Amino acid sequence: MTSDRLFLWIVFNIFVLGMLAIDLGVFHRKAHAVAPREATTWCFVWITLGLLFNAGIYLWLGSEPALEFFAGYLIEYSLSVDNIFVSSSYYPILLSRGPTSTEFSSGASWELWLCAESLLGLAPCSYNTSIG
Asked: In whole angstroms, what is the distance from residue 80 CA to residue 87 CA?
C-alpha cells in the first residue's frame, strides 16, 4: 500500500469515527424512542453524506471508481433489508425480557460502534487484496 493510499485510509477512518462520535455523542446523547420522522431524516442525512463521498471519489479518482463505489453502496444498502429482518426477529425477544425503548435505542447505538470498529479494521485488508 502506497503512502498516499495509507493517508486516504487514515483520513477516511478518522472521518467515519468522527461522524459516529457526533451521531452518538452529540445528537443521540440521551437515549429515546425514535419516531419515524426522525429516522427518515437521519436516513437522508447519511445517504447524502454517502453521495457526497461518492462525488469526491468521482472528482478525485474518476468515473470508474465512483461507479464501483456507488454500485457497492447500493448493494450494501439493499442488504440492510436483511439486517431489518434479523433485528425484527430477535429484538422482540430482548424486549420481552424487560428493557425499555430507550435502553433498546442505546444498545443499538453501541452495536453500530462495534460494527464500525470491525469494518474499519478489515476494510483496508479487503481493499488491498482485491484491488491493490
From this structure: 10
Of 106, 88, 121, whose CA–CA distance to 9 is shortest? 121
Cell numbers placing 63: 468515473
CA neighbor of 87 nearest in space, from 108, 73, 118: 108
- Domains of the chain, residue spans: 3-130
Tens digit of each residue's pLDDT, the chain (132 residues): 677 778 878 888 898 888 888 877 777 677 777 788 988 898 898 899 889 989 999 998 899 999 999 999 998 888 877 777 766 666 665 555 555 555 455 555 556 655 665 555 555 554 444 444
* 106 Cβ contact partners less than 8 Å away, ≥ 6 residues apart: 31
Closest CA to 46 of 27, 21, 19, 68: 19
